[in-house]
Amino acid sequence: MGKVTGFLEIDRQVGKYQPASDRIRHFREFTIPMSDQEVEKQAARCMDCGIPFCHGPTGCPVHNQIPDWNDLVFNNKWEEAIRNLHSTNNFPEFTGRVCPAPCEEACTLNLEDAPVAIKTVEQAIADKAYEMGYIVPQPATTKTNKSVAVIGSGPAGMAAAQQLARAGHDVTVYERETKPGGLLRYGIPDFKMEKNFIDRRVEQMKGEGVTFQCGVNVGVDLKVEDLLAKYDAVLYCGGSETPRNAGIPGVDLHGVHDAMPYLVQQNRRVGRENIDSVGWPSAPILAGGKHVVVVGGGDTASDCVGTAFRQGAVKVSQLDIRPMPPEKEDKLAVWPYWATKMRTSSSQAEGANREFQVATLEFVGEDGVLTGVKCCQVDERRKPIAGTEFIIKADLAFIAIGFQGPFMGGVIADLGDRLTLNTDRRGSTNVVADDKDYKTSVDKFWTAGDVRRGQSLVVWAIREGRQAARAIDEALMGATTLPR
Ligand SMILES: Cc1cc2nc3c(=O)[nH]c(=O)nc-3n(C[C@H](O)[C@H](O)[C@H](O)COP(=O)(O)OP(=O)(O)OC[C@H]3O[C@@H](n4cnc5c(N)ncnc54)[C@H](O)[C@@H]3O)c2cc1C
Ligand code: SF4
To answer: Does ligand 1 come within 6 angstroms of the Cβ of 92?
Structure first.
């Protein structure tokens, strides 16, 4: 374990942020990295619990061996630490930045509100490994003469492609957008994760023999049937991209947008890409000098808030239909599970006006242009309370209330009735496959990530990509050494 008395002597610390007034002037990451010595001290707090709740099943979806690498970092063995971390997670620099860290929620020291700074240590291990040159291509020593096509290059597709290439298969990733990365590149803003981290992994994967074919919309530019004929296996990791329909009157007013076109545009701007790309609106959506209202309470809504502040919005309000959560959870009732409690994202902390238990009734405007958002208070059952209506001034409004499934064009339309879909308890339409063999109703066709489980998290996408790669390897070779 780290230091036997570490948790008694050392206070929890995580990387500090640049002040909000500074960080909203740019789109770069703003966490000030901790020194190696500070990270080693944080790792020393780990108690190497008999049952490490951080590690799973309520903690880490990829089952990172957290106590082991905490110990390695404490003992200054950074190279061994990255080797251990890579054995369960292909991209710890992604999760170290954007994961909500259910591991910290499940950590035994969270019973005292001071969990081990697991996410900070994870990010530090990955960043240090790059700095020291430990992360290099690991091409397979033996080739299998089998070939796999992966559709979609989000974290699920990338993790699967890397695992399959390392198992000796010839892997080609087909991606509709101009560059690989999925929502990591075009959804999540640079201030949460800069995109050079994706580029470095893509280079590593190319060094391992993975081919990336970007700008190919499978099902439209290329028939799925052609892929099935050409490859021994096809893995569909297309994500869950269709925005949920809010059904709010006034959505046609100029100034009302779904969240994704806005975030994609800004990510393209920062990445010096043309914003006028296929499938996305070409007119610039910019919040500078505007009153902005964001409808929704999740990650996507929060990313709209942070982006609007960086573009120079005058005021940003965020509307959440859920009641304001308690400041502190009833620890003994919920630990080690994810707790509902008041959380403030770094974007919200930049000055968002947050309204809880509020329903959006209508977008109102003049001459076809948005001027305000009509709202009302709701009761615990989300029913409007009569007489509580009010209007928030708005020049720009974003709808960020989640996703209802994959694009139904492309792959799904192309396969038609052959591909079985279902609707989950959140009302999302997903491609049917279980989480053991990831096999769909179509022969030679597997699926993983958000397209299978519904909109989720990067860490779950990595897990599904890894597990689907194992299932495919086993199906092609009769046995596999890839981990689940
Ligand atoms: C705005 C936003 C913020 C988020 N923030 C976080 C966060 O902070 N932390 C976190 O853990 N999770 C976050 N998430 C969720 C997370 O990004 C997703 O769960 C994750 O990216 C899913 O990975 P995936 O590989 O399944 O799909 P995606 O990342 O969606 O990738 C799917 C890829 O498939 C491609 N594709 C689709 N159809 C085709 C086709 N027919 N042909 C070729 N290519 C195709 C798409 O272009 C895309 O590149 C966020 C999501 C959003 C929308
Ligand atoms: S639960 Fe916390 S203290 Fe226990 S092993 Fe995991 S990180 Fe260490």
So the answer is: no
